[in-house]
Amino acid sequence: MIDKLYEKTIERKSEINNYFESIPEMIDKELVKKKYHEYNFDTTEQDKTFAAIDGSFNSKNYMASIVYALSSQTIVSRPSQGITKQSQGGDIYHVPLSERGNIRKILSNRMSILELKSTIDTLKRNPDIDYMLIDGNISGKITNLDIPIITDIIERILISKINIKDKILNLLDEEDMIIENTTLAIKEDLLYDISMISGIPLSDIEKEEQDIISFVEIIEQLCCVYYLIENFGDKIIGVSKTSSTTNIFDDKLSDATILEYANVNPGTTDVYINDNPKLVRKTRAGLVTLNYPVLNNELSRYQFTTAFTKLDDIGNILKIELPYRATKEDMIDILNNFKSISIEGYPYILKKAHDEVVITDIDMGNIVRKLEIYEKTGRDML
Prior knowledge:
By secondary structure, the protein is α+β, with helices and mostly antiparallel strands. The chain contains 15 helices and 14 strands. Strands 1, 2, 3, 4, 5, 6, 7, 8, 11 and 12 form a ten-stranded mixed β-sheet that branches. A two-stranded antiparallel ribbon has the order 9-10. α3 runs parallel beside α10 (about 210-230). The longest helix has 25 residues, at about 1-25. The protein starts with a helix and ends in an 11-residue tail after the last helix.
């Protein structure tokens, strides 16, 4: 098979290379000049306290189940004090192999919960933090959700009878909050309570277990985002190295692609305000706007400010997102502070958080050996 791919590589090489070489010609350079403004970010001495969060997951497939590991880690950088580790979360569990097609979505949601709780815990314990950096964007944690469909009666019980939203918010408000996936921690009691309230046999409830758990995990994530923005929104900054959005230039090429291939100097775009963070689902009939299962009014009123920037000559384009309405002057002030903790145009503290949290294949191998799992993987004969 690889020989055929090499043949196709030679055959397609010219066409693919021509596409990438033609990208600069697709860019409206005059529009870039109107919306992107050069700026010399010259703050070199850190005088603000920064924190950063990142998470990681890894997994190993067995014939009966998928064993996974999750981790989250915050670090804090204070002027003249260096970097210290702060709130850490982690979990090891398993998911039925039947969910293999959804495994990245499941693990991504569970990792996000740990990241959000580590962030909340760090901000509660360190009120002197000026900026908390998140890898990616906070709006995506509420607008890019794929909410599973569960039985109406079970959904009503979870929201109205059990009131899972208030249970989670109360746990977040505790002084010594536990950094864990609450949904998994209360799973058995949750399924039992649903059965007792609904009158549906527990064995039938357990047939919907994965969808029920995923639904409650979505609620848990929504509660975490709500709590974070309500209490610490003015400190949160999302930083994306890659972005496919087209809000600034309204082109088939992404905003980040246009700026990268336009080879711009250090500076920033105008700010873009997204004041309609609705949950949207694609259907055959087009895009349909949905309500959040909890906190719909609260989450729908949030505003997010975004801008694209390049901090120095050799840096890449970054997308910056703030979970509130901000001006361009606000954004430039933040970016000037970014410059004081950046290496080659990227906040070092975010890179450090990633290095501290990543779960490698070697780590995963050590974990499953300690678990003493001797099940077949299905690939043993290869």
